[in-house]
Write a structure and sequence with these properties.
Strand content: 15-25%
Mean pLDDT: 90
Structural class: alpha+beta
Shape: elongated
Number of helices: 3
Order of helices and strands: HHEEEEEH
Helix content: 25-40%
Strand order of the largest sheet: 1-2-3-4-5
Number of strands: 5
Largest sheet: 5 strands, antiparallel
Length: 108
């Protein structure tokens, strides 16, 4: 994991937080050191170098909505479920929301 740049690690953790992949959450503040971020990820994953890729192998079974994560060192990109993803762009997208002015009933 040391081959992955700190901004890429922060972007991956930002995306995982937004998608709620892990509970408890992994803090991804950019003021945290890279070794701390790596230690948090290593609590969940074993990193295995296979050719030009780093495979994130989970220590335990993760929920179905958590994708398989790989990092291509030569292209410096993440692969989620085998597909190349622009994690920095996706993690920085503005959240989508809408305001509805219709009646809504809450049941307790």
């Amino acid at each position: 994991m040391e081959k992955i740049s700190k901004p890429n690690l922060v972007d991956l953790l930002r995306l995982s937080d937004r998608e709620r992949w892990y509970c408890p959450r992994i803090r991804f503040a950019s003021v945290r050191s890279k070794p701390c971020l790596i230690a948090d990820l290593r609590a969940l994953y074993k990193d295995v170098r296979k050719g030009a890729r780093i495979l994130f192998l989970p220590h335990r079974v993760l929920p179905d909505h958590v994708p398989d994560i790989q990092y291509d060192v030569s292209r410096r990109t993440f692969l989620l479920n085998g597909k190349v993803m622009d994690v920095p762009r996706i993690s920085r997208e503005k959240p989508v929301f809408s305001i509805s002015h219709e009646l809504y009933t809450l049941h307790f």
